[in-house]
Design brief:
alpha/beta; 11 strands; 11 helices; D-Maltodextrin-Binding Protein, domain 2; 19% strand; single chain; five-stranded mixed sheet
């Protein structure tokens, strides 16, 4: 055998041997348990989505996919843990962008950067806001609310789960767009804010569908409008844009992120698997009943959404002069 050719054959065999395991590993992802970090306690929207995906992914991949709830500091504790994790594709983070994006402006000394320390994987779902009013409020539509708030300064107070929470920022955006001044009343959590609406301690709140339904069903509150689109859970309730404030669109955006530098092959596989799961009839029915709209995307599309929300809430926070203590 020609010696130069034999040397070439030997080199090529060694190259193939070294490349083959890498290719195989890429195809075999995940090679061990996958962790989905959630910055909120069990029971909320991020937890519902994380556990829905984790169950279906485990079944499809033959590897455990576990949810790791790390609540605290407006989900920034969980975000920091995920951002600092090994970027090998086996740690993911379920983010509520309406909380993470404002943190970029509210907390300038965060130990992670949403735009630099994460790689977008996919948008998972959109959540519906319900503008609920205490049953005793004279206003029964968005137009009537704006007129009432304009004529009765200080008479309309809106509840939230705390300073800089999504409901607080939603109320301030409404104030800015409607050119009214509803007073913000922060509570220690969503349950307390919901109770305040039921008792009439406050008149208005931007609520999630699951939190609003018990109030609406008992007649203690009425739904004035929803945003950004109508929901199957409240089919007869118009959007805010339809009912008096054109152009007002606000949504809760949920999505998966991975530590920056995570393998592209892992990102692609998680993206494709999430899209498959969200198209399943049982998953779609369950989520839509909770006011969550399955909405998978490309990593690039999700990245654009994150950047837009960082810019939007940065502007609202500065204009409304919101500060956290």
């Amino acid at each position: 055998m020609n010696r130069p050719l034999s040397r070439i054959a030997l080199v090529m065999s060694l190259v193939c041997a070294s490349v083959a395991p890498l290719g195989a590993n890429a195809q075999q992802y995940p090679m061990r348990p996958v962790r989905i970090v959630d910055g909120f306690p069990p029971g909320g929207g991020t937890d519902t989505l994380s556990r829905t995906l984790s169950q279906k992914m485990s079944e499809a991949w033959g590897q455990p996919v576990v949810v790791d709830n790390r609540p605290g500091a407006s989900s920034n504790i969980g975000a920091q843990i995920a951002a600092k994790s090994n970027p090998d594709g086996h740690t993911l983070f379920m983010g509520l962008i309406g909380v993470l994006a404002p943190s970029m402006t509210l907390y300038p000394n965060l130990e992670y950067n949403l735009l630099k320390d994460f790689t977008p994987v996919t948008k998972v779902a959109s959540g519906i806001y319900v503008l609920v009013a205490h049953a005793g409020l004279p206003a029964k539509t968005v137009k009537e609310l704006m007129a009432y708030a304009a004529k009765n300064t200080g008479a309309v107070r809106y509840a939230s789960a705390g300073v800089a929470s999504p409901a607080h920022l939603a109320g301030e955006l409404f104030n800015l767009r409607a050119k009214v001044k509803m007073d913000h009343v922060p509570y220690k959590g969503g349950a307390a804010a919901t109770t305040a609406i039921a008792t009439g301690e406050v008149q208005i709140a931007f609520s999630s569908v699951p939190a609003a339904l018990p109030l609406l069903q008992t007649g203690k509150a009425r739904a004035l409008a929803v945003t950004p689109v109508r929901t199957r859970a409240l089919p007869d309730v118009p959007t805010i844009a339809e009912s008096g404030l054109p152009g007002f669109e606000l949504t809760l955006t949920y999505g998966l992120l991975a530590p920056a530098g995570s393998p592209r092959t892992a990102i692609q596989k998680v993206n494709a698997e999430t899209a498959r799961i969200l198209k399943l009839a049982d998953v779609e029915a369950r989520l839509s009943g909770l006011g969550l709209i399955p909405a998978p995307s490309t990593p690039e599309q999700f990245g654009a959404i994150i950047r837009e929300e960082v810019a939007l809430w940065g502007k609202v926070i500065k204009e409304a002069k919101i500060e956290v203590q």
